[in-house]
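Submission sheet (multi-component)
Chains listed below:
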Amino acid sequence: MPSLKDLKNRIASVKATQKITKAMKMVAAAKLRRAQEAAEAARPYSQRMGAVLANIAQTLGDDDSAPKLMTGTGKDDVHLLVVCTAERGLCGGFNSQIARAARDHARQLLRAGKTVKIFCVGKKGYDILRREFAPLIIEKKELRDVRKIGFENADAIGKRVIAMFEQGEFDVATLFYSEFKSVISQVPTALQLIPAAAPVAATADAGALYEYEPDAAAILNDLIPRNISVQIFRALLENVAGEMGAKMSAMDNASRNAGEMIHKLTLSYNRQRQAQITKELIEIISGAEAL
Amino acid sequence: MADNFNFELVSPERLLVSEQASEVVIPATEGEMTVMARHAPTMTTLKPGVVTVKSAAGKTAKYVVFGGFADISATGLTVLAESAVPATEFSTDALQARIDTARKELAAAQDHEKRNGIEEFLSELTQLHGAVIAG
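Outcome: structure written.
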């Protein structure tokens, strides 16, 4: 049985923890709003990019001149998994969910006799995947110092991936990130980056007669690498929003648990205090009676 | 009075401008190009340069862009810029930084084709640098 003083200390420490988790929840809520705004602001670009791509792809049709990034190398022996996770923990199952999706995919590929290479973006994913796939991780990128993810960050990753592809280090690249559905639900998603699937034109009249300057193939060559960077950028933004959402609900839970614990501890503290008072009274009374 | 059309300037981070314009000059790879209403549908890549927008109200605004695409369709002109800044907020330091990184890339580049590409990019940047300083 802990003493009264122990209980008092315990209550104080849980209260302090609750204050921290509450503050973290509020910070996450503010950051979530900003992350959502950033994701929304980035949407027009990727939409337009998709529309333009669809247009060109339609014009070119099944032309052989399509760049390799789009058609692939014709093999699928070596797979690159680009795993995007958060830099920090304390956000529930957010990081482990993404890592698990990547791990399942990697195991499946390994069983099928393929070679797997892993590119970790974010420290947490690296920490988790390192346990099982340490020799397969060929590169990791930390965005810890980045306060606000800009397009340059995504572009750097995209350029690196493309450079690896050009050196023939892999045949298929898949991007793992968490899609932001809502504050309480983030879905780990796998997206094939290379070979890029041509988006389907939304409207039938999109194939209007266009003039291309220089020519369609050259534009496509320029556009596809950019589109890869855009996809990565979008994934990173979704990830930030998801991380903050997950952190918010995790911290909310933690605050609630702390509240429950304080309630229980206070109850037993009061009970013990009362027992002690009763004990002292009995001692006095029985002392008086003995006289 | 010339007709107006819809002009949009989009960077990966956000939608910068969406307005009615009467005349837009874009730095296309094959030379500067003025887009007006009912321009033939064209798609072109951009080189680093200045986009000049004459809005429907007659005001002129300038934006510095670093490469990207322009999509001229029946509905209007959309410029997808890799990065875009209003010319008034543009500082030559950022440009200088880009020039420096390009120079470093050039020094590191091995194969010939890449070198050519970077050299071209570098000359475009330096040109832009001159244009910005000249105002």
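Remark: Chain B has a mean pLDDT of 82.
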